[in-house]
Design brief:
The chain is mainly α. The chain folds into four domains: about 1-115, no CATH class; about 120-215, no CATH class; about 225-375, no CATH class; about 395-485, no CATH class. About 60% of the residues lie in helices and about 5% in strands. The chain has 20 helices and eight strands. It has helices spanning about 1-5, 15, 35-60, 70-80, 90-115, 120-135, 160-170, 200-215, 225, 230-235, 245-270, 290-305, 310-345, 350-360, 370-375, 395-405, 425-435, 435-445, 450-465, 475-485; strands spanning about 15-20, 20-25, 145-150, 155-160, 180, 185, 190, 190-195. The strands form three sheets. Strands 3-4-8-5 form a four-stranded mixed sheet. The chain has a two-stranded antiparallel ribbon with strand order 1-2. A two-stranded antiparallel ribbon has the order 6-7. Helix 3 crosses helix 4, helix 11 runs parallel beside helix 13 and helix 13 runs antiparallel to helix 16 (about 395-405). The longest helix has about 35 residues, at about 310-345. It is globular, with a radius of gyration of 26 Å. It starts with a helix and ends with a helix. The relative contact order is 0.08.
Length: about 475
Amino acid sequence: MVGYYALNVDIEVRTLVGQPSLPGNMVDTEKNIGINVGQTLGTVGVLADMLVTGRKMSLEALKQEPYIPEPLLLALKVRTTSGFDDLNQELREKLATTTLRDIYGLMERRASLQKEGSDDQLLRKKRICRALWNDRQLDLDPGDFEISWGMFSYLIVTKESVFKKIRKSFGLPETVNGVTGRIEGELGLVPICLRSSGRVTIEHEDLHVFQSFAGDLQLGFDFVRETERPEIKRLVDNRKIKPGDLEIGKNFLAGVLANARQEIMVELRTYSWEKRIPVISLDDNGNHNEVNLASSILNNAIFFQGNALPDEQKLLLAYEAMLEIGKIAHLRNVLWAMVKQAVENNRDKENPWEWAASRLCVIPAKSSVSLIRAVLLGRGVKLKNEPKLDYIIPLPQALITMVRRRINPKSYGQGEMIQPKQIEEYIGMAVQVFKKRDLCQGIVDKYHISGEQMMEVRKNFIRFARISVPEGFRGKVEKELKRLISN
C-alpha cells in the first residue's frame, strides 16, 4: 500500500528508474551510468516494510468506525517499523507527501462511503444491477449479492450460483474466483468476487482497483479497437488476404503478447495481499482467447493460398510465432521460481512469504526480470533450477500446421482436423514435409537445435500428427509415421 504507489510516481528518478521521462526503464545492472543499484534495492526493502505495517493497520481498521487508521498514528507506526529514517531527506519528503495526499485520500473516500446507511447501500446495489444489465445483459437482483469493503473500494460478493452466471457472461474459466475491470462505481472499478473464496480474493481484487489508480491496468495494446480494423477483419474472416497482411498479423500478435506480459506482472504484484504462499502458480488463465485469435490470424496470413513466400520462410514464421507465445509461459515459470526461491532463502524471517510478497508489491509495474531477480534474491544470486525456454516444441507444431494447411488449404489457423477420407493423403504429406530436411535447416541453424533434439522433434511431430485425426484412426497414423520417418 504505502510503498506500492510511491514507486510508481516520479520520486528519486535517478535512483529508482533509468530516466525521468521513461518510468518503465528500470534498473537492470550496475552498468547504468549514474544508477546506484544498492540504494535502489535498499529503497525497495524500506518501502516493502512500510507496506506490511500499513496494510495490517488498514485491514484491522476496516472492522469498525471510522474504518481507517488515525493518520498520525499510521505515519508513526510505519516510520518506526521500517528503515524510513535511513532514506535521504528528499525521498522521505516525497514519500510522505504521496502517502498522506494520495493513498490515505483514497482510503478516506472509501471510509466515507462505508459509513453510509442501509438505504444508500440499497441504491448502490441497484446501480450495480443496472450497470451489469447495460454492459452484459446480466439480470441480477440486489438480493443476489452483498457489498464488502476493501481498503480502496467496495466489492460485489456473490454465492456460487450467481458467480457462475457472471463467469459465463464474461467468458471466464471456472478457476476464476474474482474479476476486476468490468463495471465502475463511485470509487472506480467495482470487483466481483465469489463469497466462498473469502477475504483472500477480496483483498486481491481490491489491490487491482488500486493498480487502476496507479495506471497499471491500462494495457498498451487496445485489442478491441485493433480487431475493428479492416485488415484484421480480413485475417479473422480468412478471406481476401493480401501479402501485406503478414506484417499486420505479426504486429497484432506482438501487441497481444505484450498485454499478456503486462498482465502477468500485474498479477505477480498482487500476491502480497495473500497471507501465505499460494498453492497455485501465477494466474495463467490470462487472455487465452486473444492469444489464440492472434496466433490463428497470423497463421492465416502465413499460409493463405497465393502466398508466394518460400516454404522455408513460412515454416520459420510459424515457428517463431509459437516460440514467442511460449515465452509468455516461460516468463511466468521463471518469475514463480524466483518467488519460491526467495521464500526458501528467507526461512530465518518471521514470515518469509510476507517478506517476499511485500517486495513484489512495491516493485514498479514495468520492472525488468533482472530487477525482480535482484530484489527477491539479491545482487548476483543465481536462480536454482531456472526454467528453460523450450525451443523444440514449436518446431513440430509449425510442421504439423504446414501439413494440415496443405491438406485443407482454405482451413483456419493451425488447420482443420483431418477427415477419415484424407488419412492416406495426410500421412503422405506428413512424411514429405518432415523428410524435406532443408525445410527446417534454417531454424535448426538459427536456434542451434542438435541432432539429439531433432529426435524429440520427430517424437512430438508424430504425437501432434496423431491428435490431428479422429479417434479410431490415430493408431494407424502413429504406426505409419513411426515406420516411414524412422530415420
